[in-house]
Amino acid sequence: MADPKHSSTELSEAEIAVHWKEEEYFYPSARFISQANLVDHNVEKRFSLENFPNYYKEYADLLDWYQYWQTTLDTSNPPFWRWFVGGLLNASYNCIDRHLARNKGKAAIIFVPEPEEEPATAITYQELYVRVNETAAALREFAGLKQGDRVTIHMPMVPELPVTMLACARLGVIHSVVFGGFSGQACGDRIADSGSHVLVTMDSYYRNGKLQDHKEKADQAVAHAQTCGAKVNKVLVWRRQRGAYHSKTPMVKGRDFFMDEVLPNYFGKIVAPVQVKAEDPMFLMYTSGTTGKPKGIQHSTGGYLAYVAGTAKYILDIHPEDIYWCMADIGWITGHSYIVYGPLALGTTSVIFEGVPTYPDAGRPWRIAQRLDVNIFHTAPTAIRQLRKVGPEEPRKYNYHFKLMVTVGEPIEPDVWRWYYNEVGKKPAVIVDTWWQTENGGFLCSTKPALNPMKPGSAGPGVPGIHPVIYDEKGKELSPGSQRAGNACIRNPWPGIMQTIWGDHDRYVQTYYAKYCKNRKSKDWRDWPYFAGDGALYAADGYLRILGRVDDVINVAGHRLGTKELESAALMVPEVAEAAVVPVVDPIKGRLPEVYVALKPGVTIAHNEIQKKVVASIETTIGKIARPAHVWVAEDMPKTRSGKIMRRVLAALSNNMAVGDITTLANPDVVEHIKTMVQAHAKPAAPADAPEDIKRFGQSE
Ligand code: PRX
Q1: What one-character-per-residue DSSP string does 616-648 give?
Q2: Reported pTM
């Protein structure tokens, strides 16, 4: 809580650590260690900075290259790093073809449909090979796609999604997968930004027991892209149930085609993998940032694939014989790296689950784990909290055995971590808390599962080859154990790092490097630390505890939402004059957005009407994932004398915290008015120690 010695705008960073309770260590079992991929204590030394960047040869050597690379890292144009220069490879070859000689009959993907009565289906490496080749042939010959073209894929969690991605990778076509839960309009924005002329979608999918219409979003996406000046020529539609169409929107003649009707023309067709350069872009993944416009994060082929294969092997401890299940959605980076590319590059079996974990009940994930004999399980704190809430004793009822479990996407409360460890993992399972971002391709911080003890709530040290550093606002390094929070940064580049923001190189430099760059002219990577945008504490043991975003991004259930994106959606409602979005703590989803709006003068409209309109606009522009916890209609916004909305004051009110010093506001009275309104709704008691991201929210404005 606020320290009276400090004004509310001047944050006491030391104070945060004083409240921080050190957690006890948990150790991996001898049984886990005896089978682990990474047991060499010398790894720290091998991956020390004095051996940078050559140590990443170990990761590159996990792949097959048509032409071996000559230069590990080219730094001639910082911060546009080029990895494994001179190398030629193909990602689809590495994830499929090379496994055929010994493992063509092994399951590459096991698809678990949401309806429990529909049986799981295993797709062997041979079957995946055939499907990916036929799809690649259709993309090339029917849709006219060639190397370097972009294609937008807006699909649910079905095997046709990785099939389509791998078919693109086979051709060197850059895929841009948009999370299926995003609205048609959000998809249209991404189509336009990436310059895609082809959209791949699906008619429908199961969620919470219902078959959802998905194709309608494709029509909205194409229409919206057109308003942004982008023309989609072809929409390729997979069908959830072959031959049956479950969407209310009709197929558009000459534009929309069913994949199950197109593919028979390419029956048995084999497409030679295109040999792409290591630094040719493989995919785009849009994510939220400080401004309203989402960023198209561009990932390379060679560096990315080497990095996800290496981290999947050493941190997830994936062996080819494992049954590995990551519950994330492939529409997010976790799904790209650790459902599709990493696990398949290592030739393991990756489970894809269509539905929500608590449908039809909280025992579903554990039934799947038992039935398929899953031994590596990967999910996010939001799902763990939800499963604990609705079925705290469910895991006990099922006979499965995890050797390793992953948590990713948000900070995990130590108490939630313990439930995961004791109940879900039944104690033998090791937990890795992996901290990273869309921009990073793969893990940045985590314990090495057989080598480091776990500490609940802490991600751990940098993974091999990643050298974290915490800077204060002035660029001074905070040493481990200094007990002050600062900005999490990485000293060195790594192969999985993004290449740039699609079409916006300046924004790339500004967002990730400008803050701590020591010399803009320097060609030495040491002068270009990567700024992650997360607050962190560096414990004496070298473990990082991630405190959350330091920018205007809200992490809702592990999904990044830009407050500016929500604000512009609210401002599209004609009656709204001003809008401000702040995060509010939620016991399951971590954070939820709350929206404050002020109406245009003279507007008379019932509050519940305006609330409905704002929610509808947010759902149309972004999607249901951005649905606010509440929309408050205020008579005015708290503002500085220069007219800026004080979001930190609103964040304090939403979270039932002290607002601090408001004497400098132009309209302090309005704070009282909003407070009365907000407090009239039963709010949870103020958190004993408000989370760091909430305390900092809006401070920089
Ligand atoms: O704030 C951090 C949080 O998620 C953000 C990245 O979100 P996104 O790009 O969507 O990628 C999510 C999955 C890689 C980070 O800036 N975050 C991610 N992992 C953790 C985390 N916060 C705490 N602990 C983690 N393990």
Answers
A1: HHHHHHTBGGG--SEEEEESS--BBTT--B-HH
A2: 0.94
